[in-house]
């Protein structure tokens, strides 16, 4: 089914996290695993490869957020804050527009 709809689909990779903040949260919560940016990069690479094979548009914002000092764009070390959401909406809108994935408003 995804292959049939691939022209209308778009995946967005995971954003980087604040590893120090996430490690503290993991310790307090007693989580077994630790979220690391190196693991996020591997996941994003697999996601991108899968999307490419299925002809699905893929937007990787990992490096963009790193270059923008991602720690200032995250509310809790993982999820975007208001500034992060503003940046996300701009980048996603631009991407969807360039890919022709938005309906035309007349």
Question: Which characteristics define this entry?
Answer:
106 residues, mainly alpha, two-stranded parallel ribbon, 5 helices, 2 strands
Description:
Helix content is 53%, strand content 6%. The chain contains 5 helices and 2 strands. The chain has helices at 2-5, 19-29, 37-53, 62-67, 82-99; strands spanning 10-12, 57-59. The model has no long low-confidence stretch (mean pLDDT 86).
Beta-strand portion reads 5-15%
Using only C-alpha atoms, the radius of gyration works out to 16 Å
What is the rounded distance between the termini?
30 Å
Large-scale geometry = globular
Lateral arrangement of strands in the main beta sheet: 1-2
Number of strands: 2
Task: Give the proportion of residues in helices.
Answer: 40-55%
Low-confidence stretches: none
Order of helices and strands: HEHHEHH
Summed up, the helix count is 5
Note the main sheet: 2 strands, parallel
Average pLDDT level: 86
Structural class: mainly alpha
